Amino acid sequence: MPKISNPEPCDLGGRGVLITRPAAQSDELCKLVESAGGRAIRFPAVAIESLSDSKPVRDLLAQPWDLILFVSRNAVERALPLFPDRRLPIDPLLGAVGAATARALIAAGRNPDLLPADRSDSEALLALPELQEISGRRVLVVRGVGGRGLLGDTLVARGARLAYAEVYRRALPAADPAPLLASWRHEVQIATATSGELLDNLLTLVGRRGRDQLLATPLVVVSGRTAESAAQLGFARVELADGASDAAIITALCRIATGSQLPATTIG
Fold it and tell me: For 16-45+176-267, CATH number?
């Protein structure tokens, strides 16, 4: 597993950073923001919900697989109670799309066998040598309902016998943005959106009343797709982090705080 480095020290100078991750997954990033001299403002823009009927997923997870790929930390944590004996299976190889997913697998009792070294996305996972020749292999992709299709579609094209275990659903939180919008101008100096869905939900939650304020706020994202979407929406500055890790996000926040830009990683 690649070594996960700590962010270089910097001073966010008291800036308020909007953290939009799900409530249960924002603690570490919030701590890093505060240790760097910033103020973490929690505003979850997605809710993670369990499925009402878990039997079809339990049946899938109980079957024999050659390879099980987990696309997120949520996928690991929501799937674990649904495996037989609430344990990860011993026989299949396990793959993780990124470091946070890998840490969740380790916490559940197994190191990932497949993990991209530099990026946390489906493209990086698909580029691994172990996933090039998989014709006839039984592959299970564990994800949320309606997840991105690139990973599964590509594996099927390479000959895999593939199925999806959808173990949770993402939903728009029932949040009242009024208090946040009332204090935005003085409290929020930088926003974050670690997925395109989070960005879409954030725009929905702030509505027309908050759209101009949001677009005028520098935004940190972790994927090129989200960066392009944000630029098209009209964000004044979009800073693309060098990966999805908390350390990479902090480094991007620091670039904004110091007024620096890296042409290779900045869009907007």
Answer: 3.40.50.10090
Q: Whole-angstrom Cα distance, residue 25 to residue 28?
A: 8
CA–CA separation, 158 and 181 (whole Å): 48
Count of CB atoms situated within 10 Å of the CB of 153: 12
* Chain region(s) in the chain for CATH 3.40.50.10090: 16-45+176-267, 49-171
Kindly give, in sequence order, each residue whose CB lies less than 8 Å from that of residue 185, ignoring residues fewer than 6 positions away. 213
Tokens of 77: 């944590």
Give a three-class secondary structure readout of 172-206.
CCCCCCHHHHHHHHHHCCEEEECCHHHHHHHHHHH
pLDDT value of position 6: 52
- Provide the percentage of residues in the chain whose pLDDT is more than 70: 93
- Give dist(CA 150, CA 131) in Å, integer: 14
How far, in Å, CA of 137 to CA of 63, rounded?
Answer: 13
* Contact status, residue 75 vs residue 142, Cβ threshold 8 Å: yes
- 39: tokens are 């103020």
Pairing, β 161-171 against β 47-49: antiparallel
Taking domain 49-171, whether its CATH number is 3.40.50.10090 is answered by: yes
Say how many C-beta atoms besides its own lie within 10 A of residue 137's C-beta: 18
Q: Mean of the per-residue pLDDT values for the chain?
A: 90
Q: State how beta strands 47-49 and 266-267 pair.
A: unpaired
Q: Are 202 and 234 in contact (CB under 8 A)?
A: no
pLDDT one-digit tens code per residue, 109-143: 999 999 988 777 788 899 999 999 999 999 999 99
Residue 252 identity: A
